[in-house]
Amino acid sequence: MAVFITKVDVRASNWYDSILNSTSGTFKVKNISGGTVTAYRKNYSYYKAIDINGDGVKELFLSTTKSSFYAYGDSIILLSYKNKKVTPLLYISSSGGGEVLYKNNAICHYHRIAGADWYDIYQLKNGTLKSVAKLRRIHDYFGSGKNLTYQEIFYKNDVKCSKSTYNSYVKKYYTGGKKLTYSVIKYKEQNPNLSKTAQHKLYQNTIKNYNKKMKKGAAQWGESGYATYYAFADIDKNGTDELILRYEYIGQNNHKTNIDSGYGENTYIYTIKNGKVKTVLSSGEYSPAFAHENFVRVYKNSNLINRGFSHEPTDDIFYKYSNGVLSSKRSLSLTRGSLWTINGKKSTRQACMNIFNKATNNDTGYSMKRYNG
User: Fold this and answer.
1) If we measure between CA atoms, which residue out of 123, 125, 131, 132 comes closest to residue 168?
2) Angle at the Cα of 276 (from 271 to 281), degrees rounded to 5?
3) Which of 23, 211, 232, 268 is the most exposed place for a label (fewest CB within 10 A)?
């Protein structure tokens, strides 16, 4: 049986709190497509806790997307609580995307691939999962020429069945079922007792070391007129301020987190986890002014961090920052300027700008202060 590697000691009524309040943890879990997979708690930002079978203990769904319909690349994990232990039950994903509904003390996973409808139905009982039926409907044109006909072929558990049998299961477990709607996981464990003042104080040594490192790097490249600038901002709104550091030219008009060229890119981001400063983003070494790298732009009241590269046209590549973790997966990409695209597809200037303004809070950044230590 699958095991949740991170230790959990909780009551049945709120057993999932320890999972939601931590980004650590590894799940070895049965894959709905066969075999087992290893999934990591840090990759899941949304959840649904609900008592599917009415036994008084809630099941926990973790999802990589807030949408009830997940897309290709997204996944869902179902976990339960049995004998005072967390039990990962099922890993759900599909190359065609899908959705999970619940009805009659069961869950039904629907997905569509290559001209076929699939339903995976499971019953929940005493913290365990039992397969009720796997349904498949193939509907397509078969034959050729005058012999071309439209056919529907129905299967239950990989054995052909009647349409009425197929429909009876769909009607009982899927039609009218409730879709899963997810909430954002609000991470509480990181620094529950640290005030903003205490957080900022904890960052002071990091700022000092960064400033020392940047000065040394600038001296080695013979560069002058630069200084360390910093900002404290709760990027993912989890109660912990991140530290944004940048070594930039003193004489520029504005020192804000949404303004950076990528030339001499020395923007570092830190957070605090369990009372310790942790690196979120860092190049690891000083970048001289002539070096062109992916810029780093942080926007006020947005958890999307822009790591684009080109300037004409501008390419904006956004990555989501959530629960103290910067995703390695792109959330949004835009091209603006002589060419206008959204996620690689041609678009209009207005459409691109509407999405850009929404993602960046109208291109608003946090003001940065000069470090004088």
Assistant:
1) 132
2) 30
3) 232
Amino acid at 340: W
Half-sphere exposure of residue 149: CA atoms within 13 angstroms, side-chain side:
4
Answer whether 137's CB lies under 8 Å from 117's CB.
yes
What do you get for the CA distance between the two ends of the chain, in Å?
Answer: 55
What does the block give as tokens for 155?
A: 């299967």
The model's pLDDT over 28-39, given as tens digits with 9 standing for 90+, comes to 999 999 999 999
Q: How far is residue 308's CA from residue 297's CA, in Å, rounded to a whole number? A: 9
pLDDT tens per residue across span 47-94: 999 999 888 889 999 999 999 999 888 999 999 988 888 899 999 998
Phi and psi dihedrals of 237, rounded to 5? 55, 45
pTM tops 0.85, yes or no: no
Tell me the C-alpha distance between 281 and 244, whole Å: 9
Predicted local confidence at residue 7, as pLDDT: 38
Contact 83, 3 (CB under 8 A): no
Task: Please state the three-class secondary structure of the chain as a single string.
Answer: CCCECCCCCCCHHHCCHHHHCCCCCEEEEEECCCCEEEEEHHHCCEEEEECCCCCCCCEEEEECCCCCEECCCCCEEEEEEECCEEEEEEEECCCCCEEEEEECCEEEEEEEECCEEEEEEEEEECCEEEEEEEEEEEEEEECCHHHCEEEEEEEECCEECCHHHHHHHHHHHCCCCEECCCEECCCCCCCCCCCHHHHHHHCHHHHHHHHHHHHHHHHHCCCCCEEEEEEEECCCCCCCCEEEEEEEECCCCCCECCCCCCECCCCEEEEEECCEEEEEECCCCCCCCCCECCCCEECCCCCEEECCCCECCEEEEEEEEECCEEEEEEEEEEEECCCCEECCEECCHHHHHHHHHHHHCCCCCCECEECCC
